[in-house]
Design goal:
By secondary structure, this protein is mostly helical. It folds into four domains: about 5-155, no CATH class; about 195-280 and about 290-370; about 400-450, no CATH class; about 560-720, no CATH class. Helices cover about 60% and strands about 5% of the residues. It has a three-stranded antiparallel beta sheet with strand order 1-5-6. The chain has a three-stranded antiparallel beta sheet with strand order 2-3-4, with no helix packed on it. Helix 3 packs antiparallel against helix 4 and helix 17 (about 640-665) crosses helix 18. It starts with a strand and ends in a 12-residue tail after the last helix.
Length: about 725
């Protein structure tokens, strides 16, 4: 980069009140030149000696518009300088020793040196030496340029016009920027509105498609029903026609049988008459009287009657062979008319249903066309949406946060509803860091959400828990949720070890103090950690482990709840894992695992066993067999998998059912004493052991100071049972 060396002179400038150099314009009246004296340059009543006339022309400063000749490649010595150089880009840079030796220097005109010195001083005072866009830097150059314009009288109009045009253009561009700023904001607002409208359209489209699909399914079902009904009607018509044909055949047969019966009746009547006549013609001895004349007349008449009867029969057979009796005809006609009307009704119904089917078919075609149109619109909107999402920042999948925070997806839904992205981010950060998330588990921040720097002391009285006895404020260490969970797990581990070795001789509060005292080595830190643990458990009460620990520590819940649940899980794990050692890799099939659960949990129903097996399969979805050791694995925060969570939930449901049975027995009592509770429990669970019954009664009527209360109201008894070890089954099947 080529640079022009800058060599300031010894001239100084007058300083303003703000101790900043200001370069005044040079007026011709300020210049004094005498032929017999050394020329002088006066600025603000300060006189400066000009160079001799043999160096510069004596009248160069008086001739307006002339510039000293100073070639860029001129060589010559220079006095003391500040190691500065002017680059081709207009920047003043400091020259190093290497650069100085490579550059030629030449004496500059005094006015140019003053101008450059002023320019450098101003830029350095304002801190804008770098060549960047800056109003202060522009103002310095504007003042320098104005001073140069004022000095050159001849070119002042032209230079002023040029400067004015630049100023007009700068003002115009600034105005344009100010005018475009609202447009930019409006563009951002319009983009957000388009995004919201797009989401709304997608939601409406999704709902409309669901409605159309449901309508399509309903119409198809109606079409199927109508088609089946039409087929049934056609089947009924065919069946009725066959019945009418069969009925007609029966009537024909009945007619023939009737004719035969009439003939038989006539024959029998004739035979009876003949017998009567024969009896009348017998004598006393029973011999037939012979009367030839009468016999001849009778024979003649009989032949005549026979011929008439034969003629009548022949006439009847000829004319009435296909005729039925009138009563039968009337009955058949009425029944036929009834069937015909029924057929007409069925035909009308069939026609109406055919029209309805055709109408539904037309509607179905229209719906198909609408669905195709909506599908095309949906595809277009999806393409537009993808294009917009490609151009815009992608939205995060907030529902995934429910898989990592305490309380699961249900609590995340509660705390993130109607929250902006920034508020959700703050909630997540608070969950991970443990800061300022004192919510009640439903998404409502508590009024005391600000985390104090110090925790107020509770005093040193006997009523204060042992690990909180202090009269001085305690520093808040701002424990995170993980810190609290790990600390609680360590306390429970040490507590169980201590109970196995020495028995339970101390309260949980005393044990916590000794735990911190042994870990940190002094009383103050032990009390401080006790306060921080108590405060953090209250803050993270949405965590099941922290909530149970705090209730036990405050005396609201029985400590044996934790030990009972832990022992039950460990015993079940020990027996199942021991039995699984006979199988490869400790993995069994679903059927064998179900048999194990039925064997060791005999009081569980079939639905409960199926639910536990389903939870195990859900916990290991990609495994062909169930790894039993993984089902009982626990992390350093005392968290189990889905199988143990379902088992705990079933234990709680068993407790609630047990308490419900107690409520039905004692809800009508005004108060309950120990004897009433003992009789109620024996009536509900006759197999309850004496030590279990004594423990439940003692816990229920035990006051905070350790004494036994004579009686309690029903609600208090139920609350104590809720917070105690109150289960129907206390041991696994051997």
């Amino acid at each position: 980069m080529e640079v022009t060396p800058y060599t300031p002179t010894d001239y100084s400038l007058a300083r303003t009140d703000n101790n900043v150099h200001r370069l005044p314009p040079i007026r011709s009246s300020d210049l004094i030149s005498k032929s017999d004296e050394t020329p002088v340059y006066t600025v603000h009543n300060t006189r400066y000696a000009l160079p001799a006339s043999n160096i510069i022309r004596g009248i160069s400063d008086q001739q307006s518009g002339e510039i000293d000749s100073w070639p860029a490649n001129a060589s010559g010595g220079s006095g003391a300088f500040r190691s500065l150089a002017l680059t081709n880009q207009g920047r003043l840079v400091s020259m190093g020793t290497n650069l100085r030796g490579k550059m030629d220097t030449a004496p500059k005109p005094k006015f140019l040196a003053i101008i450059e010195d002023y320019l450098y001083t101003e830029l350095k005072a304002l801190g804008v030496e770098e060549s960047t866009a800056n109003e202060s830097r522009l103002q310095v150059f504007r003042e320098v340029f104005s001073a140069i314009i004022d000095d050159f009288k001849t070119y002042k109009p032209l230079l002023s016009a040029i400067k004015n045009e630049y100023e007009i253009m700068l003002t115009h561009l600034n105005d344009k920027v100010k005018e475009l700023e609202p447009l930019r904001q409006q563009l951002v607002l319009l983009s957000e509105q388009c995004d919201k409208k797009l989401m709304q359209y997608r939601k409406e489209e999704r709902e409309e498609i669901l409605l159309l699909k449901e309508e399509k399914r309903r119409l198809q079902q109606s079409i199927r029903q109508l088609t089946n009904q039409n087929q049934n009607l056609e089947t009924n018509i065919q069946r009725l026609q066959e019945e009418v044909s069969n009925q007609y055949q029966l009537y024909r047969k009945e007619l023939d049988a009737r004719k035969l019966l009439i003939n038989d009746a006539n024959d029998l009547r004739n035979q009876q008459e003949k017998r009567a006549d024969e009896k009348e013609g017998l004598d006393e001895q029973g011999m037939k009287k012979e009367d030839p004349i009468m016999m001849r007349i009778a024979l003649k008449q009989a032949r005549k009657d026979l011929n008439g009867a034969l003629a009548k029969i022949t006439h009847m057979e000829a004319n009435y062979n296909d005729v039925v009796p009138r009563r039968d005809f009337i009955a058949l006609e009425a029944k036929s008319n009834e069937h015909l009307e029924r057929i007409k009704e069925l035909q009308t119904t069939n026609d109406n249903q055919s029209q309805a089917i055709e109408h539904f078919r037309t509607q179905n075609e229209n719906l198909k066309e609408d669905i195709q149109r909506l599908q095309r619109e949906k595809d277009e909107l999806n393409i537009k949406n993808e294009n917009i999402h490609d151009e815009m920042t992608p939205r995060p999948s907030w529902h995934l946060a429910g898989e990592v925070i305490d309380g699961g997806a249900e609590r995340w839904q509660n705390v993130s509803t109607n929250k902006t992205s920034q508020e959700r981010l703050v909630i997540l950060l608070n969950e991970f860091t443990g800061g300022g998330n004192d919510d009640d588990g439903t998404g409502n921040q508590s009024q005391s959400s600000a985390v104090p720097d110090q925790l107020s002391p509770r005093g040193e009285g006997e009523q204060v828990p042992f690990h909180l006895r202090s009269s001085r404020p305690v520093k808040n260490r701002r424990l995170t949720r993980r810190d609290v969970a790990v600390l609680v797990q360590d306390i429970w581990t040490e507590r169980r070890i201590s109970d196995k070795q020495d028995g339970r001789t101390k309260s949980l509060s005393e044990f916590i103090y000794e735990f911190f005292r042994n870990r940190y080595g002094n009383h103050n830190t032990a009390v401080e950690m006790g306060y921080n643990l108590d405060y953090a458990c209250k803050r993270f009460k949405h965590n099941d482990n922290c909530q149970l620990f705090y209730h036990i520590l405050s005396g609201e819940a029985d400590e044996d709840i934790y030990h009972y649940t832990k022992n039950l899980i460990e015993q079940l794990a020990e027996r199942i894992i021991k039995e699984s050692e006979t199988y490869p890799n400790g993995s069994v099939t679903t059927e064998k695992f179900q048999n194990m659960l039925t064997k060791y949990l005999p009081n569980k129903s079939a639905n409960d066993i199926s639910e536990l097996v389903a939870a195990a399969e859900k916990e290991q979805p990609h495994e062909e067999q169930i790894s039993l050791a993984k089902l009982f694995s626990v992390d350093d925060e005392d968290n189990y998998g889905e199988f143990i969570r379902v088992l705990k939930r079933q234990l709680n449901e068993d407790k609630q059912s047990y308490i419900h049975d107690v409520v039905e027995k004692i809800e009508n009592l005004s108060s309950v004493n120990a004897k009433d509770l003992e009789q109620t429990l024996r009536a509900i669970n006759p197999r309850i052991q004496s030590n279990e019954l004594a423990h439940v009664v003692q816990w229920t009527f035990e006051a905070k100071d350790g004494s036994q209360m004579p009686s309690m109201n029903v609600n208090d008894v139920l609350q104590r049972l809720q917070n105690g070890v109150f289960y129907r089954q206390h041991a696994l099947s051997s």
